[in-house]
Amino acid sequence: MGETSVDAPFEWLTGFKSIRHLVTPSRIIFGSADTSTNVHYHSSQKSPIRLNALHVGCGTSTIGESLVCLRERTPNGRLLQYGFVVNVDNDSNALKAMQNRWENRKTHAEDKHGIMQWECLDFSSDESCRLALDGVYQQLNAKNTDANNHEGGCFDLVLDKSTLDCLLCCEAQTIAQFLCEVYRALRVPTISSDCNQDDNSSEQSTIDQSNWGGVYVLITFHPPEFIDQLLQQLPGADWHIEKEVIHREMENVKENKQCIAKIEEVNSESVQDLHSPTPSSSSSTSPWSSGTFNPNENYRKTLNVFTCRRQSSNCEQHENVLNMDLVKHHVELVSDEHYKTNNPMITTERREQLRLAFLDAIKMKNDTRDTTTIELKQCYQMLFTDAEKEHLSYEYFIEDWEAYCSKDETINRSGMAFDVALDFLNEMQ
Fold it and tell me: CA 57, CA 91: separation in Å to the nearest integer?
């Protein structure tokens, strides 16, 4: 995504109301809203617990504002909140607009609101990631005496509202860079969940930020089986993954003074009430299952959610930096298997339709010297449905075609034969 002209905030996928139950502090800390069964509080522990959140691909979303304004009360009155929220995106205009919006409209002291920060970051570049985040990691680790002696491992929550979805259209290297950076950002627990269960001492039950692992919350419209394989088998990753389906709820965010997020307080005992009703049907059916892009009604109304919590097995600390080459290879394998095996673009029916379309086009040609190839503009019209063309413009089609031809100098770049067209579509998946 390049830089854009920013007029107002926009929530294009779903609003904060639909995902609030996924990011309440009690869920991040304890894994559930029932804090009474997970921890006992010492009477001296009354100061607020402030979590750190990283909002990736923020754009002009107001999710960061909602996070920093969210308050939660435990049964004994302890306050849980997000004290530091970092919003990152590669659109500097959007970042500047949202930063100015926040600075101009917040009415409370910053220590009550928490701190908001914006960083321009391109996940396709390791250098960009380091420039944007290393300073943040050093800043947070300097304040935390329990911090691990490495860069990263500072965020209790990494929130991804379809950023991975967008990157899945990019090269495997970019996807791998993103996943490695997300994993690096998550807080690494120094005490495993197994150890916590075996130790019932009052000291162990004290809230300690070194005891819980950071959580990556991914909201996605991709098929759950594809994302599950991508995350569950991520090389070197040590995290526990939970899946659910939520309703998509669009919000009309207007550019006025009342739009700024206000302090919102909820009780841990009532957090379960924040859940959206479970959708009656799953959104797992792929819109590509027929071989063409045909999204059903459920596809547009529901979203899949993956909650990935960092673990520390056997009470040992794990490395938080994944091997980029291994992750890239994994992304390539999973993507190839998914698009070519589970959701093939070329079904028997579509192959036959294209064969007939090419035969008809050849018959209509005036050039009797070339009875096999069709010009590119006509190929574009034949190869893709109207829904597919909304996601793939002719200009992008030409870019893909040039990349395909660069692998074989004998290919006629001015047109496609039927067999070449089929191979091209398979390569595109």
Answer: 9
- 125 Cα distance to chain centroid: 17
pLDDT digits (tens, 9 = 90+) for 222-269: 889 999 999 999 999 999 999 999 988 866 555 444 455 677 877 766
61 in Cβ contact with 160 (< 8 Å):
no
Task: Provide the 3-class DSSP secondary structure of residue 199.
Answer: coil
Taking the C-alpha atoms of residue 101 and residue 256, their distance in angstroms, rounded to an integer, is 10
Long-range contacts of 404-412, Cβ-Cβ distance < 8 Å, separation of 24 or more: 404/428, 412/373
β-strands 302-310, 239-247 pairing: antiparallel
Q: Calculate the CA 23 to chain-centre distance.
A: 14
DSSP conformation letters of 311-362? --GGG--------HHHHHHHHHHHHHHIIIIIS-SS-HHHHHHHHHHHHHHH
Cβ neighbours, 10 Å, residue 92: 13
Cα-based distances in Å from 366 to 144, 284, 361: 75, 47, 10
Pairing of strands 415-416, 157-161: unpaired
The angle that helices 418-428 and 376-383 make with each other, rounded to 10 degrees, is 60
Q: Which helix (H) or strand (E) holds 329?
A: helix 324-337
Please report the pLDDT score of residue 386 as a whole number.
86
Question: Residues 296-327: pLDDT tens digits?
Answer: 666 668 899 999 999 875 444 446 789 999 99
Residue with the two structure tokens 């009474």: 36
φ, ψ of residue 323 to 5 degrees: the values are: -80, 115
pLDDT above 50: residue 205: no
| Chain mean position to CA 241 | 14
Distance from C-alpha of 159 to C-alpha of 218, rounded to nearest angstrom: 6
The pLDDT-based confidence of 37 (bands split at 50, 70, 90) is: very low
The model's pTM: 0.74
- Domains of the chain (ranges; CATH) run 16-339 (3.40.50.150), 348-428 (1.10.238)
> What is d(CA 117, CA 112) in angstroms, rounded to the nearest whole number?
15
Q: Token pair for residue 191?
A: 């005490």
In angstroms, the CA 56 to CA 351 distance is 39
Residue with tokens 């056997």: 314
**What DSSP letter does each residue of 9-51 carry, written as one string?**
---SS--HHHHHHHH-HHHHHHSSS-GGGT----TT--SPEEE
Q: Residue 14, class by beta-carbon neighbours within 10 Å (0-12 exposed, 13-18 middle, 19+ buried)? A: buried
Q: Which amino acid belongs to residue 261?
A: A
CA distance between the termini of the chain: 21
Choice among 42-46, 293-297, 330-334 with the minimum mean pLDDT: 42-46
